[in-house]
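The protein record filed here.
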Amino acid sequence: MIKALKATVIDIIVAFLIIMLLFSGINLLYGQKVSEAFSLANKVSIDLENKVEAPKAEINIEEKQVINYPEYGTQYATIEIPRIDVNLPVYFGDTLEILKKGVGHSSGSYFPGEGGSIVYMGHNSRNVFRRFSELQIGDDITVTTSYGVYKYEIYDMQLIKETELDKVPIQKEQEILMVYTCYPFNNIGYATQRYVVYAKPVE
């Protein structure tokens, strides 16, 4: 019994010494890199705490050109559609993560006031665009940005395939707000059709 106990204690001591030797070796080989990694992590943490708020979007109205673009993934506007009780944040970008938060703005399209195509999209969920089917020609859409308020009136609505990119054209000749969601509105899972409303600026 005593011999077995001594053997166990010796095994524990040997295992401890081996672990200490391993840690020493790792520290000698990678100590500097580990220190740098911790240093970098601390710096990132401090930078995040002291992060300065991103500049708000601004536009030169006369030249119809955005001076300061919003940071990708940040909210820069709200969209209101009274007919279907929509009042939602608009984020610059169109990733799945962004669309979970509200309405996305396709980064390849123009901004309100720039005079070109503006493409917004949102899920057909209950809290976003589920009631899109109730919209009518002549309904109002208001986009309130950090640099001004823009009012639009719906003049057309179309059901398109997701591949029909020519139905949501990006052009600079005239300002058109195109807002779309997946169709059917009660669809669960991936949908290959889009329901698009087209709106023109109200003078």
Notes: Confidence is low (pLDDT under 50) at residues 33-54. The chain is about 25% helix and 35% strand. The helical segments are 2-49, 96-101.
